[in-house]
Write a structure and sequence with these properties.
Elements: E1 2-9, H1 13-24, E2 32-35, H2 42-46, H3 57-66, H4 91-106, E3 110-112, E4 116-122, E5 125-130, E6 134-142, E7 146-148, E8 157-158, H5 161-164, H6 167-170, E9 179-183, H7 187-197, E10 203-208, E11 216-217, E12 222-223, H8 231-240, E13 249-253, H9 259-264, E14 268-271, E15 275-277, E16 297-299, E17 302-304, E18 311-314, E19 320-323, H10 326-342
Parallel strand pairs: 1-2, 1-6, 2-3, 6-17, 8-14, 9-10, 9-14, 10-13
Antiparallel strand pairs: 4-5, 5-6, 7-15, 11-12, 16-17, 18-19
Helix pairs in contact: 1-4, 1-10, 3-10, 7-8
Domain FAD/NAD(P)-binding: 7-189
GO molecular function, one term: oxidoreductase activity
Protein name: Pyridine nucleotide-disulfide oxidoreductase
Length: 345
C-alpha cells in the first residue's frame, strides 16, 4: 500500500489547480497521488466545450499563469492566447491548455486512472479505496465536480443539458415541429434557448421563477458575479427575454394558472436549473459529510474545492454568493492551502 502526503481526487480545473499549487508550496511530486478515471479536464473538457463562457479571457489567463508549476509560459501557443482578453470565449478554447497542463503535471506526480469509492481515517492516515487499489495519505482533497440538477415531470422526453448547449449535438435530434420546454433562467438557459430556436422546433416555452439577474462590472468587483448573467447570454437575454420576445418563444412563470396545461402541450424538456455535487466516496465512519464553505474543510486532513465545494463570499454590499469559476478556485487555494497545511490529521 503506497503512502502519500496528499491525494487529490478529480482532474477537472479545480483538481488541476490543487496539484499545481501543492507543487508550488514545495510538496514533492512523489508525495502527491492524483486520482481520476480519465484525466481529460473533467466534465469541463468532456461536455461543455461548445458553451460560451461567462468569464472573460483575461481571467482564464490569470488562472493559467497563477501556478508556476503549470509552466504555462513554456507551453505552445494556444488559441486562447490570441483572443481579446476582455471578451468571453467557448470553453473548448480553455480546455485545450488545461489538457496540456494535465499531461505535464502527470509527469511530476503519481497518477491513478480509477475512481475513489471510499475514505476512512485510521491511525491519523486517510485510506483511499479505489476501484483498482488502495492508497494511504495524510491529506485528501476532493475536487469531484458536479452534475446537472433535474426536475421530474412525467410524459416529456428529456433533452440532456449537454445536448441543448451544443448546437452540433442538438442538430442531430428530430425536433421538426416539436414543442420544447426549458426550465430555468440561468446562463445555461440563455444559451439553450437560442440554440433551440435555431432548430426547426415549432415552439420553445421557457418556464421561470424570478426576474433575470445581470452581473454589474464595478471598479474592483462584480455585483452578482456568480448569480448574474454575463457575456453572450446576458446580451441575448436583454434583447429577447427582457426585450422583444422572438417568434416561437413563449415565457411563463411556474406559478402561472395554466402552467400544467401549457407544460402538457410540450413534447420535450430541458432542465437548466443548476448543478449539484457529484456523489462523494463513501465515508462510513460518519455518513454524509458537510463542508465549511468559508474554508473548504470537511474533516481533519480532508478538504473540498471546486464547484462541488464552492467558497461562500460576502460582497462589499453585504450580499452573499457561492464562488464558482477557474480563477476563483485558484483564489480559494491562495487562502485555503496555508490553512489546510495546518489542519492535518
Amino acid at each position: 500500500m503506497t503512502q502519500y502526503s496528499w491525494t487529490v481526487i478529480g482532474a477537472g480545473p479545480a483538481g488541476i489547480a490543487t496539484v499545481g499549487r501543492l507543487l508550488d508550496h514545495g510538496v514533492a511530486g512523489e508525495q502527491i497521488a492524483w486520482i481520476d478515471p480519465e484525466f481529460g479536464v473533467g466534465d469541463f473538457g468532456a461536455k461543455w466545450g461548445a458553451v460560451p463562457s461567462n468569464t472573460r479571457v483575461r481571467l482564464f489567463l490569470d488562472y493559467l499563469a497563477a501556478s508556476p508549476s503549470f509552466r504555462f509560459a513554456q507551453a505552445p501557443s494556444f488559441e486562447l492566447n490570441r483572443l481579446d482578453p476582455q471578451q468571453t470565449c467557448l470553453l473548448r478554447v480553455v480546455a485545450e491548455p488545461l489538457r496540456w497542463i494535465t499531461q505535464h503535471l502527470r509527469q511530476r506526480v503519481d497518477t491513478f486512472c480509477t475512481i475513489a469509492t471510499e475514505l476512512a481515517l485510521v491511525n491519523r492516515q486517510w485510506t483511499v479505496t479505489t476501484q483498482r487499489e488502495v492508497v494511504t495519505s495524510k491529506n485528501v482533497v476532493l475536487a469531484v465536480g458536479a452534475v446537472p440538477k433535474k426536475l421530474s415531470y412525467a410524459g416529456l422526453d428529456e433533452i440532456a443539458i449537454e445536448t441543448a448547449l451544443d448546437p452540433a449535438k442538438l442538430a442531430q435530434l428530430p425536433l421538426d415541429g416539436a414543442t420544447v420546454a426549458v426550465f430555468g433562467s440561468s446562463h445555461s438557459a440563455m444559451i439553450a434557448l437560442p440554440n433551440l430556436l435555431n432548430t426547426p422546433v415549432k415552439k420553445v416555452v421557457n418556464f421561470y421563477r424570478s426576474p433575470l439577474k445581470y452581473a454589474v462590472f464595478l471598479d474592483d468587483w462584480i455585483m452578482y458575479d456568480d448569480t448574474g448573467l454575463k457575456g453572450q447570454a446576458a446580451e441575448w437575454a436583454r434583447e429577447n427575454i427582457d426585450g422583444t420576445c422572438p417568434e416561437r418563444l413563449e415565457t411563463y412563470s411556474v406559478t402561472h394558472l395554466e402552467f400544467e396545461e401549457i407544460l402538457q402541450a410540450c413534447d420535450h424538456v430541458v432542465y437548466t436549473v443548476g448543478f449539484e455535487r457529484r456523489h462523494l466516496p463513501l465515508t462510513p465512519q460518519w455518513g454524509s459529510l458537510q463542508y465549511d464553505p468559508t474554508n473548504g474543510i470537511l474533516a481533519p486532513g480532508l478538504f473540498g474545492i471546486g464547484i462541488a465545494f464552492p467558497e461562500y463570499w460576502i460582497d462589499p454590499l453585504g450580499g452573499g454568493q457561492y464562488r464558482v469559476g477557474l480563477h476563483k478556485f485558484m483564489q480559494r487555494l491562495e487562502t485555503g492551502l496555508p490553512l489546510w497545511f495546518r489542519y492535518g490529521t
